User: Fold this.
Amino acid sequence: MAGKFEVYKDRAGKYRFRPKASNGQVVATGEAYETRAAALKGCESVQRAADGAPSSRPRASHRRTDSPSRIAARSTSTEG
Assistant:
C-alpha cells in the first residue's frame, strides 16, 4: 500500500496536510492554511512537484582532510 496525504485541523484552528508513509508514520507537515480547500490545494501542489522529482543525497564536504600518511610525510620532510 502506498503512502497518503492527510488534511487536518491543528490546535490553532488552521488546516494543514501531512504526508504519511505506508506504515502510517508522518513524513512531514505542511504550512498552516485558513481553509480546508487551501490546504488541499497545497497538498496537490506538493504531489505535483514531487511526481518524478529526482532524489539526491547531500554532497560530501570539499574540506581537505589530511590522512595520517600525509601528516607523517610532512613532519619528516627536510624542506625548509
